[in-house]
Design goal:
mainly alpha, globular, Recoverin, domain 1, 85 residues
Length: 85
């Protein structure tokens, strides 16, 4: 039973990640992980430069004005981009 639960959770995780990647692909918005080149958990303006829409709105997306985007800030940006999509 425990193995079945773990397998189901793994399948669900893969499904969610593939859906997120597909949705991001549809709007030309890269994933957080793709933009976070140094994998430190934040996107700097230098890392955001490869996404024209993001770099244009970087100051607005950076809600706490700390000069970098965390996952929550980026999620809010990508959700809006998907809605415009």
């Amino acid at each position: 039973m425990k193995k079945l639960t773990v397998n189901l959770l793994m399948v669900a995780a893969v499904f969610m990640l593939s859906n997120a990647a597909f949705a991001a692909e549809q709007t030309n918005v890269p994933t957080f992980e793709y933009l976070d080149a140094d994998q430190n958990g934040f996107i700097t303006s230098e890392e955001a430069a490869s996404c024209e829409t993001l770099i244009t709105d970087f100051a607005t997306v950076d809600a706490n004005q700390d000069g970098k985007l965390d996952q929550a800030e980026y999620a809010a940006f990508s959700d809006k981009a998907l809605q415009k999509g």
